[in-house]
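Morning!

This is the sequence you dropped in the shared folder:
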Amino acid sequence: MLKRLISSNQLYQPYLFLFGLALILRLIVALWVRQPGFVDAYYYFQVAENWFKGQGLTESIVWNYQAGDFPASNPANLLEHPAFGYWMPLASFVTIFGFSVTGNASFWAGIWPFMLLAATLPPLAWWLGQMAFGNTQRRYSWLMALVTLFPGRYFLFWNTPDNFSLFALLSFLFFMSSWAGLYRSERWLLVAGGLGGLAYLSRSDGILLLTALIISFLIRQRQKIGEGEIRPRWQWLAVGLLTAGLVVTPWLIRNWLTFGMPVSSGSSKALYLRSYTDLFSYSLKLDANYYFSWGWNNILSSKLNAANLNLLILTVQGLFLAAPFFVLGLFFVRKNPVFLPFLVYLVVLYLAMTLVYSEISAHGTLFHSAGGLLPYQVGAALAGIEGLAAYLWRKKAGVAARVRRVGIGLAVLLAGLAMALTIVYGAGNGPDWDSDLNYSQKVGEWFKRNHLSDNVIIVGEPLSYYYATRQLAIGQASDGVKANLRAANRYGAKYLVLGEQHYDALDSLYQTKQIAGLKLIAEFDGNQIYQVLAGEGL
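The structure's back. Tokens below.
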């Protein structure tokens, strides 16, 4: 197969060309993305770094008070504690692999595997076009590959030590192996199960992929068998799901030994948020009683708001002005077997993010989970354009040729638009990638100048602060000054940093600059530094 690929005309089978071009673009992005840049990536990098240094899968700071907890045997002021009380581990494992191959724990050593993963997506998108629309409809393959090369907001994030490129690749391969297992050879269901297990280890909502597999299997049982197709047997679905279970079992055992339960308690708290900031509270008890005491009017309003935002995110992401054609195109691809797992997952993902993860879905959760959808969405958009054209010209002669010309012209236009907007996005946001790091360095320099850098502090974003300064820190609590004082008392924090961007519950302190338990000792560049007065204001 490899020999045939290399000897074939690369204009028509441009897998190596697309991979090479994607890798060049990843290297260009690396000029901007020179450190993790945002909370999730800082977290995965920190855990990987700790493991590489022999500290195991641990966190060095407290970034969140709801996301897991400390074992009861730990002293109250010991910040280092087991990792992954909220997130899943695979991104850190990939980063650790990068460290192990290169022999060091630099940022570049950690991200090169993610760059390679991202570079595989465009050639795979080309392949998807061939499978879904036929090898003579190359406009689909080219458009799907080029939009994956220039994927809008994903352009920068696919280089980070996070699960953006990882989950995009796993979910894409899951869709393709599910299709193959449902229509070609049922043994591919075993592969789909394994990929679903890996996706779950990447993101907890990866379980939705396995849900989509089960539903797709049920749909397939009711469909007619076409030429060269199969109807998969139930035992192969069971084997696929068993494979997924075998993949995740070692991690569930680790959680049981570490936290006393197979699934960490912190991950379920996202179900009970009234607002996104609840996740960063110290004192709130996030459970069903807290959530339902909010009242049905508020709950329904939250679900409706999530429904609107999630619909916007799913239809517009990476597609820009082509979003209406994607929605239209869903009608034209609904009977395409290659699209079945994608279509089912699209519905499952939307419903789960709207009805279950209402308050976090629009804060990056849906964005993380939808990267593997992009090639399918682009293909559906072009199918929508051509389907509409065919309908409008249905009574004219030479319809097929007209539709093909329109398809080619608009494919070129959409690819050019994606390229232009992605470059504009990268050029506009790339220079700001270091803003959190620069802020942390500036605050850290103040503590160093004043010989206070050995103290634990409370800061808005402790993960980037620790990366920049190596000073121990805990996160600001979103539920008021007293909550922050209690956190300081528990974890031994001596100072509170309050910047221009802070939680609403701390706005009164920022305006008045005085409250029991805190003493203002410095102000600079919109930052207020408070000394925590032990035992006061609790």
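Headline: The first strand starts at residue 58 and ends at 59.

More detail when I'm at my desk.
O.
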